[in-house]
Design goal:
The protein is of the alpha/beta class. The protein contains eleven helices and eight strands. 40% of the residues lie in helices and 12% in strands. Strands 1-2-3-4-5-6-7-8 form an eight-stranded parallel beta barrel, surrounded by five helices. Helix 5 links the parallel strand 3 and strand 4. Helix 2 packs across helix 4, helix 5 packs across helix 6 and helix 6 runs parallel beside helix 7. The radius of gyration is 24 Å and the shape is elongated. The chain binds 3-methyl-2-oxobutanoic acid (KIV). 3-methyl-2-oxobutanoic acid (KIV) binds next to loops.
């Protein structure tokens, strides 16, 4: 930004609605720590999600299921400290909201009060529609998540696209409409055929953010580690890599290791020094 450029305005739910109306794509990305937050802020994204994908990308679990509220809160607070302009969405982890409206409100309030989230995200239709309604009634803005919902994917057909038949697509659309009716401010749609998103978007007033849902969505979200190539392992079909930071990082650490082993590092410019007289006195002190 030049010295005279006006600072960009903070993103608000109202500014997202304006973007939807103007058909201006909304950019959402995940982040999980303070440097990540500073990077996505500097890149000018609109919405930052501290996704429970953190379970796999930064905590090393096999799925999103084991991550706890306390683990998510620690990561979310770190992201909050690195953001000023984008909206911050906290992801309520598996087991922290499903059982009752009271549990959902108690957990969501922690994300708002302790981690400074603007909204919280919950997965699925069904009972999550009731939880969304209760959260909104308690004054907590909610993001819904339909299509492939990773928290319950293992119990509902695995990690594959959803809505590939007309009946299955109808279920995705019905869940989305119910979540909007419950008061959700935003909807994430994951891993559905583009035709489903094309059918869904005109039916909803709230912005629809796609991940593996084709170009018809009002915006797109990708996982930070996937788009930057920081993740060791296969990525879903919808992921596009915009950088290969893991390879760069391995090369950087390997070069450091090589220079330590060969004595190239540290070089004179990395050393502290002391006055010659002090050095001579020190040598006198320690010599036998
Ligand atoms: O946890 C996550 O990162 C998500 C996005 C993939 C939408 O839910």
């Amino acid at each position: 930004m030049s010295a005279h450029a006006a600072p960009r305005a903070r993103v608000t739910p109202a500014s997202l609605a304006q973007k939807k109306d103007a058909r201006e794509p909304i950019v959402m990305v995940t982040a999980y720590d303070h440097p990540g937050a500073q990077i996505v802020e500097a890149a000018g994204v609109d919405i930052v999600l501290v996704g429970d994908s953190a379970a796999m990308t930064v905590l090393g679990y096999d799925s999103t299921v084991p991550v706890t509220v306390d683990e998510m809160l620690m990561l979310t607070r770190a992201v909050r400290r690195g953001l000023t302009r984008p909206l911050l969405v906290g992801d309520l982890p598996f087991g922290s909201y499903e059982a009752s409206d009271e549990l959902a409100i108690e957990t969501a309030q922690r994300f708002i009060k302790e981690a400074g989230c603007d909204l919280v995200k919950i997965e699925r239709g069904g009972t999550s529609v009731d939880r969304a309604r209760a959260l909104v009634a308690a004054g907590i803005p909610v993001v819904g998540h339909v299509g492939l919902t990773p928290q319950t994917a293992a119990a509902s057909g695995g990690f594959r696209a959803r809505g590939r038949t007309a009946d299955a697509a109808r279920t995705v659309i019905d869940d989305a409409l119910a979540l909007q009716d419950a008061g959700c401010s935003l909807l994430v749609v994951e891993a559905v055929p583009s035709e489903v998103t094309q059918a869904l978007v005109p039916l909803l007033d709230i912005p629809v953010i796609g991940i593996g849902a084709g170009p018809a969505a009002d915006g797109q979200v990708l996982v930070f580690h996937d788009l930057l190539g920081l993740y060791d392992g296969g990525a879903a079909k919808f992921v596009k890599r915009y950088a290969d930071l893991r390879a760069d990082a391995v090369a950087g650490v390997a070069a450091y290791a090589e220079e330590v082993r060969s004595g190239v590092y540290p070089a004179p410019e990395h050393e502290y020094s002391m006055p010659a007289a002090e050095a001579a006195e020190l040598r006198g002190m320690v010599s036998g």
